[in-house]
Amino acid sequence: MKFNVSTFIFFLAWLAVSGAQGQTKYFSDPQKLSYLSIQVLRGNVIVVGTSDSSVTTNLGLWPSELTKDLIAKGFSRSRKQSRRRAEFSMRESENKMNLDFTAGALNETLYVKVPRTSNLKLVVSGAGSVVVQGTEGEIDVECLQGKIFLDRIRGPVVAHTLNQSLEARFSALVPGKPNFLSSLNGDVRLFLPKD
Prior knowledge:
Blueprint: H1 5-21, E1 23-26, E2 35-42, E3 44-50, E4 54-60, H2 64-72, E5 87-93, E6 96-102, E7 109-115, E8 119-124, E9 130-133, E10 139-143, E11 148-153, E12 157-161, E13 166-170, E14 180-183, E15 188-191
Parallel strand pairs: 2-6, 2-8, 3-7, 3-9, 8-10, 9-11, 10-12, 11-13, 12-14, 13-15
Antiparallel strand pairs: 1-4, 4-7, 5-6
């Protein structure tokens, strides 16, 4: 077996980052509706709906299963390293989870797995973009300078970005629940189910 030093160094760096930022927390009552609020001062956030009852976080680059699609949509991966450390906190009270995140590097990403039925409120107040994939609850997302990409969602959705594009791909729509998508200076692309 051939030993590759650069792969080993990358693996150690990945362990250090994921160990420092990887956290799992459970909602107080998994039987009740859960709420997840994420405040991002600077950096990207990717939220993926799962069948788990916990919220799991990790910090790093774009996950490999999303990378190709995201790059095609104009999301870029940072190759620059920063001496600044990411700031992250996560707390839960009465089925409401609050996450605060400030990236250390320009395009550092917080990756969050969440119960797919959770309601989401995501705010990126500085540079950074948002991806939400495979969720069924309400989504409220706002980006000041970044792009918004919503994939395989049900909604209802309120999404606004100031200076970039917004794309929403619905797997289904919730009857009687309105959706509101806007961008002041970018394109809005909407994909609806066939029915």
